[in-house]
Specification:
The protein is of the alpha/beta class. It folds into two domains: about 220 residues, Spore Coat Polysaccharide Biosynthesis Protein SpsA, Chain A (Alpha-Beta Complex), CATH 3.90.550.10; about 70 residues. Helices cover about 50% and strands about 15% of the residues. It is built from nine helices and seven strands; from the N terminus they run βαββαβαβαβααβααα. It has a seven-stranded mixed sheet with strand order 3-2-1-4-6-5-7, sandwiched between helices. Strand 1, helix 1 and strand 2 form a beta-alpha-beta unit. The protein is elongated.
Length: about 300
């Protein structure tokens, strides 16, 4: 049976060089959507936007809590500033670039009744992300699903609702940059939190895109490596060790031995390296398992 009491929600809106009128319209839309659905407080975090965007004027008469970083500190840092300032049991985050459907907030709120986090998965009928981001997003989801052993439709969606308790469980692991959302998703799945993914549409960004192809691609690779090291290192180290061992074995015992009559130094080095990498992954897996138990105990407190 669903509770008839309206939940309390802090809506965090990180802003960096967005059009002031667009942000103002999103704030208005949030109020309209959440009316009668939840007790809502909107926190706008200006993450060091340039003065020409005039974001500071939002603090005047818009009924929001306005927070500001003197200089750009990153997407995750802006979210953490808003989260730390709020106090509602539930936290909603939403990008301020017009890409996410604000009206879907009400749907996510309803699904939170029996969940720890509800993610607006960008798998709806409309997805307007650029080609580079679509490809890296799909690759990231595939790798994350492999690491988590759970199918993940949208690892790093910027529209989601989660409990403050879940967020605080991983507070020290949540980074200041764009991997905030992917780290929170992976962490929640690792400790067995109740995570739902609800399909939403995703619109074309309003204004100039901030994408930097080479930089962003390297960033996504860094996210994959970071997630592997943080949550399932053996599933990252294992395939690398297996590949090196297979190459070393083939070269040493299939090629070298039958051609020159002995196993070459390169083959031996590859096999020994593979063994070392495997045991490094095994030790890291034990450390992660111990941390997982600590996080689970922390979440139960």
């Amino acid at each position: 049976m669903r509770s008839t009491r309206r939940p309390e929600v802090d809506v965090i809106l990180p802003v960096f060089n967005e059009d002031r009128e667009l942000v103002k319209n999103i704030v208005t839309k949030i109020r309209e959507v959440m009316e009668g659905v939840a007790e809502t407080r909107i926190l706008v975090v200006n993450d060091g936007s340039k003065e020409e965007y005039n974001i500071d004027s939002l603090a005047e008469g818009n009924g929001i809590i306005y927070l500001k970083h003197p200089a750009n500190r990153g997407y995750g840092a802006a979210l953490k500033t808003g989260i730390a300032f709020g106090n509602a049991p539930w936290i909603a985050i939403l990008d301020a670039d017009g890409t996410y459907p604000v009206e879907s907030l009400a749907v996510l709120i309803r699904e939170m009744e029996d969940a720890d986090m509800v993610v607006g998965a960008r798998t709806g009928g409309l997805f307007q992300g650029c080609v580079i981001r679509r490809v890296t997003k799909k690759l990231l989801n595939v790798v994350a699903s492999y690491l988590a052993r759970v199918r993940i439709a949208d690892l790093n969606s910027g529209m989601r609702i989660f409990t403050r308790r879940l967020c605080h469980t991983f507070w020290g692991l949540l980074p200041p940059r764009f991997s905030f959302t992917s780290t929170l998703t992976m962490g929640a799945l690792v400790v067995g939190a109740r995570v739902k993914e609800i399909p939403i549409e995703y619109h074309k960004r309003i204004g100039e895109s901030s994408i930097r192809p080479l930089h962003d691609t390297m960033g996504f690779i860094g996210i994959i490596v970071r997630m592997g090291l943080l949550f399932h290192p053996l599933r990252l180290f294992g395939p690398v060790a297996g590949l090196l061992f297979a190459v070393g074995f083939f070269k040493g015992f299939v090629r070298d031995y039958f051609v020159v009559g002995h196993v070459g130094n390169l083959a031996v080095m590859l096999i020994l390296t593979a063994v070392q990498i495997f045991f490094m992954g095994l030790v890291a897996e034990l450390i992660v398992s111990n941390r997982k138990l600590s996080l689970e105990r922390k979440g139960d407190e």
